Structure formats: structure tokens, C-alpha cells
Amino acid sequence: MLHIAVLRLRLHLEGCASLKEKRQRLGGLRDRFGRLPGIAVCESGAQDSLNDAEWSFVAAGGSRQITDRLLSGIEDFVAETVDARVTARDLEQL
Fold first, then answer.
1. Are strands 52-61 and 85-93 parallel, antiparallel or unpaired?
2. What SS3 class is residue 34?
3. For residue 79, which phi and psi values (nearest 5 degrees)?
4. Are 94 and 24 in contact (CB under 8 A)?
5. Which range marks the domain in which residue 29 is found?
6. Which end of the chain has a smaller Cβ tally under 10 Å, C or N?
7. H helices then E strands: how many in the chain?
8. Which sign does the torsion angle of CA 78, 80, 85, 90 carry?
9. In angstroms, what CA-CA distances link 5 with 19, 52, 81, 84?
10. For the chain, first and last CA: distance in Å?
């Protein structure tokens, strides 16, 4: 059985002066996680906002533990590495 989970993170980018700067600060998310097997990633909301962003990560795996582990790793990376503050988090198991 295939397990699918969606993690949506709402981010606040303090002091972001342009959409170009926003893309530079967050663009690494797609590069880093978009090439992993079993992961899909996209900017899913607030595309025109300078200070806010929403990113969605979809994980597919053979068990819920696998998808939970993948998404937990992504969430930890974003919280520790990305120059933005996580303001909301939503995890949905499909």
C-alpha cells in the first residue's frame, strides 16, 4: 500500500525587499528536495507577497513511518537553515 502525506509550511521572510530576493532565499528548497525520490515540492501560496510564502511538500512511501520521516527531515531543515520563520504548519495524511 502506498502512503501519501502533504506538509504545508507558511513562512515569513523578515525584511524581504523584492520577489527576486524572496526567490533567492527560498529557491534552494526546490533544488534540494525536488530531486529526492518520493518527494514533490512546490511554492503553493503567497507567490506575490514579499514577506510571506507557502510551500507544500508531498511524500510518498511504503509506510506512514517513511513519509513521516521524510517530511520531518524537511521541516527540520527549513526551521534550521532557511532564512525565514515558520508561522504555520499543516500535515495531512492521504
1. unpaired
2. coil
3. -65, -35
4. no
5. 3-93
6. N
7. 2, 4
8. positive
9. 29, 23, 22, 23
10. 12
Contacts 24+ apart (CB under 8 A), 62-71: 62/1, 62/2, 62/3, 63/3, 64/3, 64/5, 64/93, 66/3, 66/38, 67/3, 67/4, 67/5, 67/38, 67/93, 68/5, 70/36, 70/38, 70/39, 71/5, 71/7
Give the number of domains in the chain.
1
All 3 cell numbers of residue 92? 495531512
Q: What is the CATH number of the domain that holds 13?
A: 3.30.70.1120
pLDDT in tens, 5-63: 999 999 999 988 888 888 888 878 888 888 888 899 988 888 888 899 999 999 999 99
Residue 84 amino acid letter:
A
